[in-house]
Amino acid sequence: MSNYYLSLHAFLNKGLGVMLNEVVNVLIGYVIFIAVINLLYSIYKDKFKKAGVEVSGITIVWRVFRKEIVPSETLFKRIRKYCYVLDALVLIMIGSLFLGLKILFENMFGIVEAVGAAQAPAKGVVTPVVPLIPGVTISLANLPVMLAVIALAALVHEGMHAIVSLTEGSRIKSAGLALITIILAPFVELEEKDFEKLRLRSKLRILSAGVSGNVGLAIVSIVLFALLLPMFFNLYPGLYIAGVVENSAAKEANIPENMVIVAINGTFFSDKVNVLTLLFNPQKLNDVLSEFKLKGRTLALKLMDSKNPDKIVDVVVVRNSTGDPIGVYLYPYIVMKPKGVLEAKIGYFAQTFLIWSFAINLGLAAINAIPIFITDGGKALDEALKLKFRRNGAFISRAIQGFLLAILLVNMVFSVMLYMP
Q1: 257 membership: H or E segment, kind and range
Q2: Buried/exposed 49-72: b ≥16 CB within 10 Å, e otherwise
Q3: Average pLDDT, stretch 297-326?
Q4: In angstroms, rounded to a whole number, what is the distance separating the alpha carbons of residues 39 and 51?
Q5: DSSP states of 80-100 as a string?
């Protein structure tokens, strides 16, 4: 039996066990909550509706603003003079679309190649595209932070739609909060009649606004991560030793695994690489290592424990020539040493929140830009093709979206098999 099918078998056994063990209590509590809310809604429907609350199965909607929001001529008069600037939103959405398609199709090529070789695709070849399932794809400990990040992402997304809609002259019917399963998210309901009357350029600006908002929030998150992290931690970027090659210079020097090379010949990686560089160009660490390898056969390595920064080991590696490898498997890493107890608590929360905010907002932007039925990208494709091909436009749009949906589902299935066995 091939490694690919063994991977599938392991996923079905272990993945299901994890799900049942860690999520069952949450599911029971959630089912009871939904049942009680639906029962109360059926009894006191008029009172619920008077308060702007609607309940339908697992979805609870609270329309906080039920009065129509009309575009203010005085507020947006000056903004409309520079409406062409809003075309940048469309360009950002197109960029997000290319990012999403790049991930999906690179994954497909990696999957096809692996299946042809009768083995499971290697991690790193396939970028994971998985649903957020509490207790399975995300730990229950991170769930509160995750929900806060998603709520913020939705607030920015919907807020951008509302602002650009009003700028383009479209009214807002209502705005509020929606609880879908366990995710609390803001929403904005546009006036469809106003939207339909707009020219294509205005429609695309409105549809692109949410994706652009998520991209902007992702950028802000990663910049804050890079700026705030040094306030709470002493950072030691380096190369994590995942393994040591037999009969190599590293083996002879007794280099331990699961340590991080933080300095070479007295020079720390932190002197040459900052956090942003490490995040967006981790290859820079290998370049620094290569520079030292070419300067001499002997390398004095300072190793730091990845979990206990106070544990430091100095090792000297001697190679036969400057062209010989050290004999270790490496990947980029940052050892974080808290500056104090308070800094550790605040820092770890900030780190978790900002990294998740970056990943989720960028992921939402990429997925939302891809034309898949309910996404903003799907609506934009509908509008563009309807104008170009009229009656046939809707059919062409559905065909494209169906194809991309199939690609997305294949990505999700293989991602789950790879990253949740």
Answers
A1: none
A2: eeeebbbeeeebbbbeeeeebebe
A3: 90
A4: 17
A5: HHTGGGGHHHHHHHHHHHHHH
Residue 184, both tokens: 């609390």
Task: Write the DSSP symbol of residue 320.
Answer: S
Domain extent for 281: 246-326
Mean pLDDT of 119-143: 54
- Beta strand segments in 158-203, E: 172-180, 183-190
Coil, strand, or helix at residue 255?
coil
Q: Are residues 320 and 409 in the same domain?
A: no
- DSSP percent split of the chain into helix, strand, coil, nearest 5: 60, 20, 20
Beta bridge mates, 338: 233
Q: How many CA atoms lie within 13 A of 26 on its CB side?
A: 15
**Is 349 among the domain residues?**
no
Dihedrals phi, psi of 185, to nearest 5 degrees:
-140, 135
Residue among 141, 154, 176 nearest 64 (CA): 176
**Residue 371: beta bridge partners?**
none
Write down the pTM of the prediction: 0.74
CA neighbor of 386 nearest in space, from 395, 399, 374: 395
pLDDT tens figures, 270-297: 888 887 777 778 888 888 888 888 888 8
Q: How far apart are the C-alpha atoms of 403 and 166, rounded to whole Å? A: 34
Cα separation, 126 vs 96, whole angstroms: 19
Give 51-101 pLDDT, tens digit per residue: 888 888 878 888 877 777 776 666 566 666 667 778 899 999 999 999 988
Residue closest to 403 by CA, chosen among 377, 371, 374: 371
- Report if residue 236 sits inside a domain: no
Q: Can you say whether the dihedral through the CA atoms of 167, 170, 171, 173 is positive or negative?
A: negative
**Sign of torsion, CA 382 101 146 22?**
positive
What pLDDT sits at residue 98? Answer: 93
Q: Where are the beta strands (DSSP E) in 40-136?
A: 53-56, 59-65
The average confidence (pLDDT) of the chain is: 80
DSSP tag of 370? S
Asked if 154 and 39 sit in the same domain, the reply is yes
